[in-house]
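#help-structures
NK: newbie question, is this the right format to request a structure? protein is Peroxidase
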Amino acid sequence: MSRIHVVELSTATPEQKVLLEAIQKQLGMVPNFLKVFANSPVALQAFLGLHGVAGAGSLDPLDRERIALTLAQQNGCQYCVSAHTAIGRKTGLSDEEMAAAREGTSDDPTSAAILKFARSLMARHGEVSALELTEVRSAGVDEAQIVEVITHVGMNFLTNILGKASLVEIDFPSVKLELA
């Protein structure tokens, strides 16, 4: 049971209802973590805005999901590991690629560099070294993509801490945090 109220359409305020219905229309469902976000329509709108804009960047969609899986595992958010495993499959990641991403790596050298950089950003609270920036650039990641990686790290940290703080019920096929 969630430690923070889960807003259902049936009990939503008019402002919450508009947002939840828009999500329902777009996704065909309203994930529970967005129902928690709906307690503050402003917070939900901010997240949806950032998510929409960040998704339109130059970072490969597979790398965006790899980042999400890497950070969900690193931050210990079972909700996010479960959600991004389901989303990763729909995006085109294989089970092997998702397992590697959860370990912070990839067979693709550019993706591996991105994940290493993302993990370091999280672990070091953004205080990455000049060498780390040089390494990610040397892997073919341009300045726009570096900023997008930073954006995705921040956005995923937000969802990780929301998932962990709320203990929201997992509404995707549940995936254990520890790797098999």
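mod (FA): yep, format's fine, and the tokens are attached above. The mean pLDDT is 97.
NK: thank you!
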